[in-house]
Design goal:
This protein has three domains: about 220 residues, no CATH class; about 45 residues, no CATH class; about 70 residues, no CATH class. The radius of gyration is 34 Å and the shape is elongated. It has about 375 residues and is of the alpha+beta class. The protein has a seven-stranded antiparallel beta sheet with strand order 2-3-1-4-5-7-6. The two termini are about 55 Å apart. The chain is about 55% helix and about 10% strand. The protein is built from 16 helices and seven strands.
């Protein structure tokens, strides 16, 4: 099998300048490089750059896919916008780590498997990149899912407690579903974890609370916000304001739900039981559907045989005509009609009459081995 490696880097906050672009061109003459991205695919050889160092210096997101089962994903965000102490509780295993680089934190997620099929990397990063802003805005579902994967992979001790469970873990958006797929996280484990996750929906009341908070800002504070917005074109201004708003709210306002943290062992054991129950429910539903299909088929068969009884003589004649053609397709149709006539004979109590006519057909066409073989396959014996 040929080798396949896909590298993609993206800039979100600020485009690359010409000096940065020139440095990146020296790393690879084959890469597709723009002011916001660096993409390269290798079918032989390898990338000379260090992805973590490139993230530290230039980029806000990175994704790597290799045809031997490796998935690698990184996000970079300013430290000032993140709750460092809380975030560290989620990144506790080898598959989910945090790197402190100057004024940024870099989140690194990796997933390895031997049970994989060939896949390409295009499209993955675009489906995941919005997770960065979610984390900055305080939505830590992505980080909790990464912690779950570490637990799933045996990278965390069985008696370790889970970190705080974010709201809406049972209602994942499209980027989070992509993250689950990319990291290969057990969906049964997610379902169990979500049992301790509060459900939070935005309401008109939330909008009113936000409006009241903005009204409470002083004139100087609002002037400073407008100045930064116009003069600095600060990409993080909205995120900073959202965080200040969150700080002003009580625990009840942000919809925390104080359930007892579970151990890794408890989560894994319950996920195993959940999976067994899910499989049982699926099997039960499939059995119900099978029985229903059989009942519906029996009703249709009954209707068909009732109709067949009104034209039985014509069908026998058609069988004779089809056999005389000596064509394979017509043999198949003739045998199918004979099966119908046999079932009709059983239903009407005239199976002896059917057997007699079938015996005549055997004798008449005994020198047609292909046709006789078809009769035997359908148990249409003399």
């Amino acid at each position: 099998m040929s080798e396949y490696q896909y590298y993609e880097f993206q800039v979100i906050d600020k485009p690359l300048n010409e000096k940065s672009l020139e440095a990146l061109r020296h790393l690879s003459s084959r890469a597709h490089i723009t002011s916001t991205s660096f993409v390269n695919t290798y079918n032989y050889g390898d990338f000379r750059g260090n992805p973590l160092k490139l993230m530290e210096k230039y980029f806000d997101a990175f994704l790597y896919v290799a045809n031997w089962g490796t998935h690698w994903f990184m996000l970079r965000a300013p430290c000032k916008l993140l709750k460092g102490d809380l975030i560290k509780k989620y990144c506790m295993g080898d598959s989910a780590t945090i790197h402190k680089k100057s004024e940024h934190l870099i989140f690194e997620f990796t997933s390895e498997t031997e049970d994989h099929e060939w896949e390409e990397g295009e499209g993955w990063l675009s489906s995941l990149i919005s997770l960065r802003s979610d984390i900055i805005y305080g939505d830590y579902r992505c980080l909790y899912l990464a912690w779950l994967f570490c637990a799933q992979s045996g990278e965390i001790d069985d008696d370790d407690l889970e970190p705080p469970v974010p709201p809406n873990l049972g209602n994942l958006n499209a980027p989070l579903k992509s993250f689950v797929d990319f990291m290969r996280i057990d969906t049964d484990l997610i379902a169990v974890a979500a049992e301790n996750s509060a459900a939070k929906k935005k309401t008109k009341k939330d909008d009113e609370v936000l409006k009241n908070w903005t009204r409470s800002l002083s004139a100087n504070e609002k002037n400073e916000i407008i100045f930064r917005l116009v003069n600095d074109n600060d990409p993080h201004l909205g995120m900073e304001l959202a965080q200040e708003f969150q700080k002003s709210m009580t625990a009840d306002d942000i919809h925390t739900k104080g359930k007892k943290p579970r151990t890794v062992s408890e989560l894994l054991q319950k996920a195993e039981a959940y999976a067994e129950e899910r499989k049982r429910r699926i099997a039960e539903q499939q059995e119900k559907e099978r029985v229903q299909r059989e009942q519906e088929a029996a009703i249709e068969r009954e209707k068909y045989l009732n109709d067949l009884s009104k034209r039985e003589d014509a069908v026998w004649k058609k069988v004779d005509v089809l056999i005389e053609t000596k064509k394979q397709k017509e043999y198949d149709e003739a045998v199918k009609l004979l099966v119908d006539l046999r079932d009709l004979g059983k239903k009407s109590g005239k199976i002896s009459r059917f057997n007699n006519r079938l015996g005549d057909i055997h004798e008449k066409h005994i020198r047609k081995p292909s046709f006789i073989r078809r009769l035997k396959e359908k148990n249409l014996k003399r």
